[in-house]
Amino acid sequence: MAANLTITDALIVGGGHAGLSAALTLYRGLHTCIVFDTHQPRNKWDTPVHIMPTWDDQKAEEKRKISREELLKSGLIRFVDFGIEEVSKTGNGLFRVVDTRGEAWLGRKLLLSIGSTNLFPSIGGYEENFARGIFPCMLQFGYELRGVSSAGLLAVDTLASVPHASMLAQDAYKFTDNMTVYTSANPELAHAMQNELGSYGIAVDDREIIRLMPGPSKADVTIKFQDGAEKTEGFLVHRPGTRVASKLASQLGLEITEFGDIRVSPPFCQTNIPGVYAAGDCASPMKIIPNAISMGAYAGAGIARELPRAVTGNAAC
Ligand SMILES: Cc1cc2nc3c(=O)[nH]c(=O)nc-3n(C[C@H](O)[C@H](O)[C@H](O)COP(=O)(O)OP(=O)(O)OC[C@H]3O[C@@H](n4cnc5c(N)ncnc54)[C@H](O)[C@@H]3O)c2cc1C
Fold it and tell me: Considering only the top CATH level, what class is 7-118+241-306?
Protein backbone atom coordinates (compact mmCIF):
# COMPACT_ATOMS: atom_id res chain seq x y z
CA MET A 1 0.00 0.00 0.00
CA ALA A 2 1.31 3.54 -0.80
CA ALA A 3 2.55 5.80 2.00
CA ASN A 4 0.13 8.36 3.34
CA LEU A 5 1.86 11.53 2.12
CA THR A 6 0.77 13.76 4.99
CA ILE A 7 3.60 14.35 7.43
CA THR A 8 2.31 14.38 10.98
CA ASP A 9 4.20 16.15 13.75
CA ALA A 10 4.23 13.14 16.05
CA LEU A 11 3.48 9.46 15.60
CA ILE A 12 2.42 7.90 18.89
CA VAL A 13 2.55 4.11 18.99
CA GLY A 14 0.38 2.92 21.89
CA GLY A 15 -2.82 4.64 22.98
CA GLY A 16 -2.81 3.73 26.67
CA HIS A 17 -2.48 6.20 29.55
CA ALA A 18 1.00 7.33 28.50
CA GLY A 19 0.23 7.80 24.81
CA LEU A 20 -3.04 9.64 25.45
CA SER A 21 -1.32 11.94 27.93
CA ALA A 22 1.40 12.80 25.40
CA ALA A 23 -1.22 13.52 22.72
CA LEU A 24 -2.94 15.93 25.10
CA THR A 25 0.27 17.90 25.69
CA LEU A 26 1.04 17.93 21.97
CA TYR A 27 -2.29 19.32 20.84
CA ARG A 28 -1.99 22.02 23.48
CA GLY A 29 1.14 23.06 21.52
CA LEU A 30 -0.89 23.05 18.25
CA HIS A 31 0.88 19.92 17.02
CA THR A 32 -0.76 17.14 15.05
CA CYS A 33 -0.51 13.51 16.19
CA ILE A 34 -1.61 10.11 15.08
CA VAL A 35 -2.15 7.61 17.89
CA PHE A 36 -1.92 3.94 16.84
CA ASP A 37 -3.45 1.46 19.24
CA THR A 38 -4.20 -2.26 19.41
CA HIS A 39 -6.24 -1.99 22.65
CA GLN A 40 -4.22 -4.62 24.50
CA PRO A 41 -3.06 -2.98 27.73
CA ARG A 42 -0.88 -4.92 30.18
CA ASN A 43 -3.82 -4.91 32.60
CA LYS A 44 -5.93 -6.98 30.20
CA TRP A 45 -8.12 -8.03 33.16
CA ASP A 46 -9.34 -4.41 33.43
CA THR A 47 -9.48 -4.63 37.22
CA PRO A 48 -10.84 -1.46 38.87
CA VAL A 49 -8.24 1.31 39.04
CA HIS A 50 -6.77 2.32 42.39
CA ILE A 51 -4.19 4.92 43.52
CA MET A 52 -5.32 7.18 40.67
CA PRO A 53 -6.96 10.41 41.91
CA THR A 54 -10.47 11.07 40.54
CA TRP A 55 -10.69 7.52 39.18
CA ASP A 56 -10.67 5.32 42.29
CA ASP A 57 -12.42 1.97 41.80
CA GLN A 58 -13.41 2.75 38.20
CA LYS A 59 -12.45 1.03 34.96
CA ALA A 60 -9.29 2.00 33.06
CA GLU A 61 -10.98 1.32 29.72
CA GLU A 62 -13.61 3.97 30.48
CA LYS A 63 -10.85 6.45 31.35
CA ARG A 64 -9.16 5.82 28.01
CA LYS A 65 -12.46 6.28 26.18
CA ILE A 66 -13.13 9.66 27.82
CA SER A 67 -9.58 10.77 27.13
CA ARG A 68 -9.95 9.89 23.43
CA GLU A 69 -13.18 11.90 23.22
CA GLU A 70 -11.43 14.93 24.73
CA LEU A 71 -8.54 14.62 22.28
CA LEU A 72 -10.76 14.23 19.22
CA LYS A 73 -12.42 17.58 19.98
CA SER A 74 -9.10 19.33 19.26
CA GLY A 75 -9.22 18.33 15.58
CA LEU A 76 -5.45 17.77 15.79
CA ILE A 77 -5.40 14.16 16.92
CA ARG A 78 -6.27 11.15 14.82
CA PHE A 79 -6.67 7.57 16.06
CA VAL A 80 -5.74 4.56 13.96
CA ASP A 81 -6.78 1.34 15.66
CA PHE A 82 -4.18 -0.92 14.08
CA GLY A 83 -0.86 -2.15 15.37
CA ILE A 84 2.46 -0.84 14.11
CA GLU A 85 4.72 -3.60 12.86
CA GLU A 86 7.64 -1.72 11.38
CA VAL A 87 9.42 1.48 12.18
CA SER A 88 12.40 3.19 10.56
CA LYS A 89 14.07 6.57 10.22
CA THR A 90 14.06 7.92 6.67
CA GLY A 91 17.01 9.61 4.94
CA ASN A 92 15.47 13.05 5.49
CA GLY A 93 15.12 12.62 9.27
CA LEU A 94 11.45 11.62 9.36
CA PHE A 95 10.01 8.49 10.93
CA ARG A 96 8.09 5.95 8.89
CA VAL A 97 5.82 3.41 10.54
CA VAL A 98 3.89 0.64 8.85
CA ASP A 99 0.68 -0.76 10.32
CA THR A 100 -0.62 -4.32 10.22
CA ARG A 101 -2.53 -3.59 6.98
CA GLY A 102 0.70 -2.52 5.29
CA GLU A 103 -0.22 1.18 5.33
CA ALA A 104 2.74 3.51 5.93
CA TRP A 105 2.71 6.79 7.86
CA LEU A 106 5.27 9.59 8.16
CA GLY A 107 6.01 11.76 11.18
CA ARG A 108 8.60 14.23 12.41
CA LYS A 109 8.92 12.67 15.87
CA LEU A 110 8.10 9.27 17.30
CA LEU A 111 6.83 8.26 20.72
CA LEU A 112 6.67 4.64 21.85
CA SER A 113 4.09 4.17 24.61
CA ILE A 114 3.59 0.48 23.93
CA GLY A 115 3.36 -0.82 27.50
CA SER A 116 5.15 -3.96 28.57
CA THR A 117 4.52 -7.70 28.86
CA ASN A 118 4.14 -9.66 32.10
CA LEU A 119 6.57 -12.57 32.57
CA PHE A 120 4.71 -15.13 34.67
CA PRO A 121 6.46 -17.86 36.70
CA SER A 122 6.05 -21.37 35.30
CA ILE A 123 3.99 -22.65 38.29
CA GLY A 124 0.83 -24.34 36.96
CA GLY A 125 -2.32 -22.26 37.51
CA TYR A 126 -0.41 -19.01 38.16
CA GLU A 127 -1.69 -17.12 35.13
CA GLU A 128 -5.33 -18.22 35.62
CA ASN A 129 -5.25 -16.86 39.17
CA PHE A 130 -3.33 -13.65 38.44
CA ALA A 131 -5.44 -10.54 39.18
CA ARG A 132 -8.17 -12.83 40.61
CA GLY A 133 -6.35 -14.27 43.63
CA ILE A 134 -2.70 -13.35 43.00
CA PHE A 135 -2.03 -9.62 43.24
CA PRO A 136 1.11 -7.65 42.41
CA CYS A 137 0.67 -4.74 44.82
CA MET A 138 -1.19 -4.46 48.11
CA LEU A 139 -1.46 -0.68 47.90
CA GLN A 140 -3.54 -1.23 44.76
CA PHE A 141 -5.46 -4.36 45.77
CA GLY A 142 -5.21 -4.80 49.57
CA TYR A 143 -8.04 -2.55 50.73
CA GLU A 144 -10.76 -4.70 49.15
CA LEU A 145 -9.15 -7.86 50.59
CA ARG A 146 -8.74 -6.60 54.15
CA GLY A 147 -9.80 -8.89 56.98
CA VAL A 148 -9.02 -12.30 55.44
CA SER A 149 -7.72 -14.69 58.09
CA SER A 150 -4.61 -15.76 56.17
CA ALA A 151 -2.64 -14.79 53.08
CA GLY A 152 0.61 -15.74 51.40
CA LEU A 153 3.44 -14.32 49.32
CA LEU A 154 5.18 -16.29 46.57
CA ALA A 155 8.91 -15.59 46.98
CA VAL A 156 9.69 -17.16 43.61
CA ASP A 157 11.09 -16.04 40.29
CA THR A 158 11.58 -12.25 40.27
CA LEU A 159 10.42 -12.14 43.91
CA ALA A 160 13.02 -14.64 45.19
CA SER A 161 14.86 -11.76 46.84
CA VAL A 162 14.92 -10.95 50.55
CA PRO A 163 14.53 -7.13 50.35
CA HIS A 164 11.83 -7.20 47.69
CA ALA A 165 9.83 -10.11 49.17
CA SER A 166 10.10 -8.70 52.72
CA MET A 167 8.76 -5.33 51.64
CA LEU A 168 5.74 -6.84 49.87
CA ALA A 169 5.10 -9.37 52.70
CA GLN A 170 4.99 -6.57 55.25
CA ASP A 171 2.64 -4.59 52.99
CA ALA A 172 0.34 -7.62 52.81
CA TYR A 173 0.46 -8.37 56.54
CA LYS A 174 -1.55 -5.17 57.15
CA PHE A 175 -4.57 -6.83 55.52
CA THR A 176 -4.57 -10.26 57.20
CA ASP A 177 -4.07 -11.90 60.61
CA ASN A 178 -1.69 -14.62 59.37
CA MET A 179 0.95 -14.15 56.72
CA THR A 180 3.17 -16.85 55.17
CA VAL A 181 6.03 -16.46 52.71
CA TYR A 182 6.29 -19.43 50.32
CA THR A 183 9.80 -20.02 49.00
CA SER A 184 9.04 -23.25 47.06
CA ALA A 185 12.07 -25.49 47.55
CA ASN A 186 14.66 -22.75 48.05
CA PRO A 187 16.11 -23.52 51.52
CA GLU A 188 18.71 -20.76 51.41
CA LEU A 189 16.08 -18.12 50.69
CA ALA A 190 13.71 -19.66 53.26
CA HIS A 191 16.40 -19.37 55.95
CA ALA A 192 17.15 -15.75 55.03
CA MET A 193 13.44 -14.85 54.96
CA GLN A 194 12.96 -16.48 58.37
CA ASN A 195 15.77 -14.35 59.79
CA GLU A 196 14.33 -11.24 58.20
CA LEU A 197 10.62 -11.70 59.00
CA GLY A 198 10.38 -14.16 61.91
CA SER A 199 10.33 -11.38 64.51
CA TYR A 200 7.33 -9.78 62.80
CA GLY A 201 5.29 -12.99 63.20
CA ILE A 202 5.38 -13.79 59.47
CA ALA A 203 5.82 -17.53 58.79
CA VAL A 204 8.01 -19.11 56.08
CA ASP A 205 7.07 -22.34 54.24
CA ASP A 206 9.61 -23.94 51.89
CA ARG A 207 7.53 -26.83 50.53
CA GLU A 208 7.68 -27.07 46.75
CA ILE A 209 4.58 -25.63 45.08
CA ILE A 210 3.32 -27.62 42.11
CA ARG A 211 -0.02 -25.98 41.36
CA LEU A 212 -2.24 -23.01 42.22
CA MET A 213 -6.02 -23.40 42.04
CA PRO A 214 -8.96 -21.05 42.60
CA GLY A 215 -10.28 -21.53 46.16
CA PRO A 216 -13.89 -21.65 47.28
CA SER A 217 -14.59 -17.92 47.53
CA LYS A 218 -13.60 -14.44 46.32
CA ALA A 219 -9.82 -14.22 45.97
CA ASP A 220 -8.99 -17.56 47.66
CA VAL A 221 -6.15 -19.55 46.11
CA THR A 222 -5.45 -23.17 47.04
CA ILE A 223 -1.77 -24.11 46.94
CA LYS A 224 -0.94 -27.72 46.10
CA PHE A 225 2.47 -28.88 47.35
CA GLN A 226 4.80 -31.59 46.09
CA ASP A 227 4.13 -33.62 49.28
CA GLY A 228 0.42 -33.86 48.33
CA ALA A 229 -0.79 -31.39 50.97
CA GLU A 230 -2.96 -28.37 50.11
CA LYS A 231 -3.48 -25.02 51.80
CA THR A 232 -5.97 -22.29 50.94
CA GLU A 233 -5.00 -18.65 51.39
CA GLY A 234 -7.36 -15.65 51.27
CA PHE A 235 -5.07 -14.13 48.61
CA LEU A 236 -1.51 -14.41 47.35
CA VAL A 237 0.99 -11.69 46.56
CA HIS A 238 3.42 -11.91 43.68
CA ARG A 239 4.80 -9.34 41.26
CA PRO A 240 5.78 -10.87 37.92
CA GLY A 241 8.69 -9.52 35.94
CA THR A 242 8.03 -7.45 32.84
CA ARG A 243 9.81 -6.63 29.61
CA VAL A 244 9.26 -4.67 26.43
CA ALA A 245 8.26 -7.45 24.05
CA SER A 246 7.86 -5.30 20.94
CA LYS A 247 10.21 -5.70 17.99
CA LEU A 248 9.94 -1.92 17.39
CA ALA A 249 12.58 -1.26 20.04
CA SER A 250 15.10 -3.49 18.29
CA GLN A 251 14.21 -2.14 14.81
CA LEU A 252 15.17 1.32 16.05
CA GLY A 253 18.23 0.13 18.01
CA LEU A 254 16.90 1.43 21.33
CA GLU A 255 18.86 0.76 24.49
CA ILE A 256 17.12 -1.51 27.01
CA THR A 257 17.73 -1.39 30.78
CA GLU A 258 18.57 -4.36 33.03
CA PHE A 259 14.88 -4.38 34.02
CA GLY A 260 13.75 -4.88 30.42
CA ASP A 261 12.51 -1.31 29.84
CA ILE A 262 13.48 1.17 27.12
CA ARG A 263 16.18 3.45 28.50
CA VAL A 264 15.11 7.11 28.54
CA SER A 265 16.63 10.23 30.02
CA PRO A 266 14.55 12.31 32.43
CA PRO A 267 12.56 14.45 32.42
CA PHE A 268 11.56 14.47 28.73
CA CYS A 269 11.86 10.72 28.09
CA GLN A 270 14.26 10.85 25.14
CA THR A 271 15.75 7.54 24.06
CA ASN A 272 19.26 7.04 22.68
CA ILE A 273 17.93 7.64 19.14
CA PRO A 274 17.37 11.35 18.38
CA GLY A 275 13.72 12.16 17.77
CA VAL A 276 12.48 8.96 19.45
CA TYR A 277 10.82 9.16 22.87
CA ALA A 278 9.34 6.45 25.10
CA ALA A 279 6.92 6.80 28.02
CA GLY A 280 4.87 4.74 30.47
CA ASP A 281 5.34 1.09 31.41
CA CYS A 282 7.66 0.42 28.47
CA ALA A 283 10.17 2.96 29.74
CA SER A 284 10.03 2.83 33.54
CA PRO A 285 10.20 0.31 36.39
CA MET A 286 7.47 2.42 38.10
CA LYS A 287 4.52 0.81 36.36
CA ILE A 288 1.45 2.65 37.58
CA ILE A 289 -1.04 4.85 35.78
CA PRO A 290 -0.06 8.17 37.46
CA ASN A 291 3.55 7.60 36.36
CA ALA A 292 2.49 6.68 32.81
CA ILE A 293 0.44 9.88 32.61
CA SER A 294 3.28 11.96 34.01
CA MET A 295 5.86 10.48 31.62
CA GLY A 296 3.47 10.97 28.70
CA ALA A 297 3.04 14.65 29.60
CA TYR A 298 6.82 15.17 29.82
CA ALA A 299 7.47 13.28 26.59
CA GLY A 300 4.81 15.42 24.89
CA ALA A 301 6.54 18.55 26.16
CA GLY A 302 9.95 17.31 25.00
CA ILE A 303 8.60 16.49 21.53
CA ALA A 304 6.74 19.82 21.25
CA ARG A 305 9.94 21.72 22.07
CA GLU A 306 11.84 19.92 19.34
CA LEU A 307 9.20 20.72 16.73
CA PRO A 308 9.03 23.98 14.77
CA ARG A 309 5.97 26.23 14.93
CA ALA A 310 3.10 24.45 13.15
CA VAL A 311 3.17 25.52 9.46
CA THR A 312 -0.57 26.10 9.21
CA GLY A 313 -0.94 27.44 12.72
CA ASN A 314 -3.86 25.15 13.51
CA ALA A 315 -4.14 22.48 10.85
CA ALA A 316 -6.58 19.64 11.47
CA CYS A 317 -5.02 16.20 11.35
C1 LIG B 1 -3.55 -6.55 37.00
C2 LIG B 1 -3.04 -5.12 36.98
C3 LIG B 1 -3.70 -4.16 37.74
C4 LIG B 1 -3.24 -2.85 37.75
N5 LIG B 1 -3.89 -1.95 38.55
C6 LIG B 1 -3.44 -0.68 38.59
C7 LIG B 1 -4.06 0.28 39.44
O8 LIG B 1 -5.03 -0.02 40.14
N9 LIG B 1 -3.56 1.55 39.45
C10 LIG B 1 -2.48 1.91 38.70
O11 LIG B 1 -2.07 3.06 38.77
N12 LIG B 1 -1.88 1.02 37.87
C13 LIG B 1 -2.32 -0.26 37.81
N14 LIG B 1 -1.71 -1.17 36.98
C15 LIG B 1 -0.60 -0.71 36.12
C16 LIG B 1 -1.16 0.02 34.90
O17 LIG B 1 -2.08 -0.81 34.22
C18 LIG B 1 -0.03 0.44 33.96
O19 LIG B 1 0.97 1.11 34.68
C20 LIG B 1 -0.56 1.36 32.85
O21 LIG B 1 -1.56 0.73 32.11
C22 LIG B 1 0.59 1.79 31.93
O23 LIG B 1 0.08 2.56 30.89
P24 LIG B 1 0.83 2.55 29.48
O25 LIG B 1 0.10 3.51 28.64
O26 LIG B 1 2.28 2.71 29.66
O27 LIG B 1 0.66 1.05 28.94
P28 LIG B 1 -0.68 0.22 28.58
O29 LIG B 1 -1.83 0.67 29.43
O30 LIG B 1 -0.28 -1.22 28.69
O31 LIG B 1 -0.99 0.62 27.09
C32 LIG B 1 -0.13 0.29 26.03
C33 LIG B 1 -0.96 0.33 24.74
O34 LIG B 1 -0.09 0.21 23.62
C35 LIG B 1 -0.71 -0.64 22.67
N36 LIG B 1 0.34 -1.17 21.78
C37 LIG B 1 1.39 -1.95 22.11
N38 LIG B 1 2.14 -2.22 21.04
C39 LIG B 1 1.55 -1.60 19.99
C40 LIG B 1 1.85 -1.51 18.61
N41 LIG B 1 2.93 -2.10 18.09
N42 LIG B 1 1.03 -0.78 17.80
C43 LIG B 1 -0.07 -0.17 18.32
N44 LIG B 1 -0.40 -0.24 19.63
C45 LIG B 1 0.40 -0.94 20.45
C46 LIG B 1 -1.42 -1.68 23.51
O47 LIG B 1 -2.45 -2.33 22.79
C48 LIG B 1 -1.95 -0.81 24.65
O49 LIG B 1 -3.23 -0.29 24.35
C50 LIG B 1 -2.13 -2.48 36.96
C51 LIG B 1 -1.48 -3.45 36.16
C52 LIG B 1 -1.92 -4.76 36.18
C53 LIG B 1 -1.21 -5.79 35.34
Answer: alpha beta
